[in-house]
Specification:
Elements (H helix, E strand, L loop, with lengths): L1 H13 L3 H30 L4 H31 L1
Helix pairs in contact: 1-3, 2-3
Length: about 80
Protein backbone atom coordinates (compact mmCIF):
# COMPACT_ATOMS: atom_id res chain seq x y z
CA UNK A 1 0.00 0.00 0.00
CA UNK A 2 2.87 2.36 0.78
CA UNK A 3 4.28 1.63 -2.67
CA UNK A 4 1.00 2.64 -4.30
CA UNK A 5 0.87 5.89 -2.32
CA UNK A 6 4.41 6.80 -3.33
CA UNK A 7 3.59 5.87 -6.94
CA UNK A 8 0.59 8.19 -6.82
CA UNK A 9 2.73 11.02 -5.42
CA UNK A 10 5.36 10.49 -8.12
CA UNK A 11 2.73 10.57 -10.83
CA UNK A 12 1.29 13.81 -9.51
CA UNK A 13 4.74 15.38 -9.16
CA UNK A 14 6.26 14.34 -12.49
CA UNK A 15 3.23 14.74 -14.71
CA UNK A 16 1.72 12.65 -17.43
CA UNK A 17 4.80 10.62 -18.42
CA UNK A 18 4.96 8.62 -15.21
CA UNK A 19 1.40 7.27 -15.24
CA UNK A 20 1.94 5.03 -18.30
CA UNK A 21 5.36 4.08 -16.95
CA UNK A 22 3.86 3.13 -13.59
CA UNK A 23 1.13 1.12 -15.28
CA UNK A 24 3.73 -0.69 -17.37
CA UNK A 25 5.74 -1.56 -14.27
CA UNK A 26 2.62 -2.88 -12.57
CA UNK A 27 1.79 -5.10 -15.55
CA UNK A 28 5.37 -6.35 -15.73
CA UNK A 29 5.39 -7.19 -12.03
CA UNK A 30 2.03 -8.96 -12.23
CA UNK A 31 3.13 -11.00 -15.23
CA UNK A 32 6.32 -12.02 -13.44
CA UNK A 33 4.39 -12.98 -10.31
CA UNK A 34 1.81 -15.06 -12.15
CA UNK A 35 4.55 -16.75 -14.16
CA UNK A 36 6.40 -17.62 -10.97
CA UNK A 37 3.19 -19.02 -9.44
CA UNK A 38 2.52 -21.15 -12.52
CA UNK A 39 6.07 -22.44 -12.61
CA UNK A 40 6.05 -23.37 -8.94
CA UNK A 41 2.63 -25.03 -9.18
CA UNK A 42 3.68 -27.14 -12.16
CA UNK A 43 6.83 -28.15 -10.29
CA UNK A 44 4.73 -29.17 -7.29
CA UNK A 45 2.33 -31.15 -9.48
CA UNK A 46 5.25 -32.91 -11.17
CA UNK A 47 6.66 -33.94 -7.79
CA UNK A 48 3.33 -35.05 -6.29
CA UNK A 49 0.69 -35.74 -8.94
CA UNK A 50 -1.86 -36.81 -6.33
CA UNK A 51 -1.91 -33.24 -4.93
CA UNK A 52 -2.65 -31.66 -8.31
CA UNK A 53 -6.12 -30.43 -7.34
CA UNK A 54 -4.91 -28.66 -4.24
CA UNK A 55 -1.96 -27.07 -6.03
CA UNK A 56 -4.17 -25.91 -8.89
CA UNK A 57 -6.70 -24.34 -6.54
CA UNK A 58 -3.99 -22.54 -4.61
CA UNK A 59 -2.42 -21.33 -7.85
CA UNK A 60 -5.71 -19.89 -9.13
CA UNK A 61 -6.43 -18.08 -5.85
CA UNK A 62 -2.94 -16.57 -5.72
CA UNK A 63 -3.12 -15.49 -9.37
CA UNK A 64 -6.50 -13.86 -8.74
CA UNK A 65 -5.06 -11.92 -5.80
CA UNK A 66 -2.19 -10.68 -7.96
CA UNK A 67 -4.60 -9.68 -10.72
CA UNK A 68 -6.74 -7.76 -8.25
CA UNK A 69 -3.80 -5.85 -6.82
CA UNK A 70 -2.44 -5.03 -10.26
CA UNK A 71 -5.83 -3.83 -11.47
CA UNK A 72 -6.04 -1.55 -8.43
CA UNK A 73 -2.56 -0.16 -9.14
CA UNK A 74 -3.40 0.49 -12.80
CA UNK A 75 -6.58 2.34 -11.78
CA UNK A 76 -4.52 4.46 -9.37
CA UNK A 77 -2.11 5.31 -12.19
CA UNK A 78 -4.94 6.26 -14.52
CA UNK A 79 -6.65 8.33 -11.85
CA UNK A 80 -3.42 10.20 -11.27
CA UNK A 81 -3.12 10.80 -14.99
CA UNK A 82 -6.51 12.50 -15.09
CA UNK A 83 -5.82 14.57 -11.95
Amino acid sequence: MLMLISLMQAVIHWGSITAPLGAALVVFGAAFGIGKIGSTALDAIARQPEAAGSAQTTMIVAAALIEGASLFAIVVCLMALSA
